[in-house]
Design a protein that fits this description.
By secondary structure, the chain is α+β, with helices and mostly antiparallel strands. Helices cover 32% and strands 26% of the residues.
């Protein structure tokens, strides 16, 4: 296992990775831009390096400066979290060229998966259905996490239903997708595993499918990095995905033994809490947080990075954290989610908490009648 890694991310993503590193006895290096010296993820790390000025409308981190920070501090590996560097083939390649382990797939895999046409062609070659043009069926989005180590692909892990999404962001995720039959669940797992094995993929991937009311499915895409809503899967399965990522990157076998029996899975819901005003088209709400109360109690997990004094603006991003609620049943998880949302309070900026409270109070959501058009069909008053 590594002795020290550099975490090339910020905010929630950086803290999430660092917490697992601390449990594993791995030292961490944070990278930040000028003005972020007091940020929670910078203070949490064992070391921190400033990699440049805060420039509006520019990429958060300069790849060359991050590589230099890793080399100067003696880091052996770089974890990119789920930001822009996590999907950059050039960054993955630069890590390898400088003797650093990139915690994620290699540059060729990132480049291939960034080309949707190549991915669809590969899927069709091996009999995996893909979405056809002009198809207007109502569908649900199901994301299957898969760990692939050097000994070969493990069975896929507990899936997540990306029940409420806006663009590429999952606003509400839940795990497992209880509407799936056992046959459909196995089928999705087999397809996800087959696709990654065919590519020679190594690491953690989230394979996204669209599933219609009849249970027929087609491939949507593959996300080859830590999903921002991964904590939903962790709460349901009890598996630390960051730990498994680090083990695989270090050349060790994944420790989890694949698919958790359905009878042992807890139901979990994850709410993406952002500094946005949903009544105004989810417009960013900028300002300084003057108070924060985070929820607690049975079945509640808060993965956040903000606190009193944190400045929220275009340079820091609007995502403040994920609130996850878990229970023995979906109904219990929703009940705990309602309680957690009621306990969560942020002062100084508008947040998406009221929006999430509307979702858990929605009749269609409660009976799991949720498709990719949920925002339009059930929340049509949003501007």
């Amino acid at each position: 296992m590594f002795e020290k890694i550099l975490v090339a991310a910020r905010g929630e993503a950086a803290l999430r990775v660092m917490r697992t590193c601390r449990e594993m006895g791995v030292a961490t290096v944070a990278v930040y831009v000028a003005g972020e010296e007091g940020a929670s993820f910078v203070r949490y790390a064992d070391e921190a390096v400033c990699v440049g000025p805060a420039l509006p409308d520019a990429d958060y981190l300069n790849e060359a400066n991050v590589i230099s920070a890793a080399l100067v501090t003696g880091a052996q590996a770089v974890h990119p979290g789920w930001g822009s560097l996590a999907k950059s083939p050039s960054f993955s390649r630069s890590c390898a060229e400088n003797g650093l382990v990139f915690v994620g797939p290699d540059a060729d895999a990132l480049a291939f998966l960034g080309d949707g046409d190549s991915l669809r062609a590969l899927a069709m070659r091996y009999g995996i259905p893909v979405l056809s043009s002009g198809d207007t069926s109502r569908r649900r989005r199901v994301v299957v996490p898969v760990l692939v180590d050097r000994s070969g692909s493990r069975l896929p892990l507990c899936e997540m239903h990306a029940s409420v999404s806006r663009g590429n962001r999952v606003l509400v995720g839940e795990s497992p997708a209880s509407f799936l039959s056992d046959e459909s669940r196995r089928s999705l797992g087999v397809m996800a595993q087959k696709l990654l094995r065919t590519m020679g993929y190594e690491g953690l991937a989230f394979v996204s499918f669209l599933v219609d009311a009849a249970g027929d499915s087609c491939l949507e895409d593959v996300q080859p990095w830590l999903h921002a809503a991964h904590s939903v899967v962790e709460a349901a399965s009890g598996i630390d995905l960051v730990r498994e990522q680090l083990l695989i990157a270090a050349g060790e076998d994944a420790t989890c033994m694949g698919l958790v029996p359905f009878s042992r899975i807890r139901f979990s819901l994850g709410f993406c809490v952002c500094a946005e005003d949903s009544r105004r088209g989810f417009s960013p709400s900028t300002g300084t947080i003057d108070s924060l109360t985070v929820p607690a109690g049975p079945g509640i997990r808060w993965d956040g990075w903000v606190g009193p004094g944190t400045r929220v603006d275009s340079s820091t991003g609007v995502q403040m954290g994920h609130l996850v609620a878990a229970g023995a049943t979906r109904r219990e998880a929703i009940s705990r989610g309602r309680r957690g949302l009621a306990e969560c309070s942020v002062g100084g900026v508008q947040t998406t908490i009221p929006f999430h409270q509307r979702i858990v109070g929605n009749a269609a959501y409660n009976r799991e009648d949720v498709y990719t058009d949920f925002l339009e069909s059930e929340m049509g008053d949003l501007q």
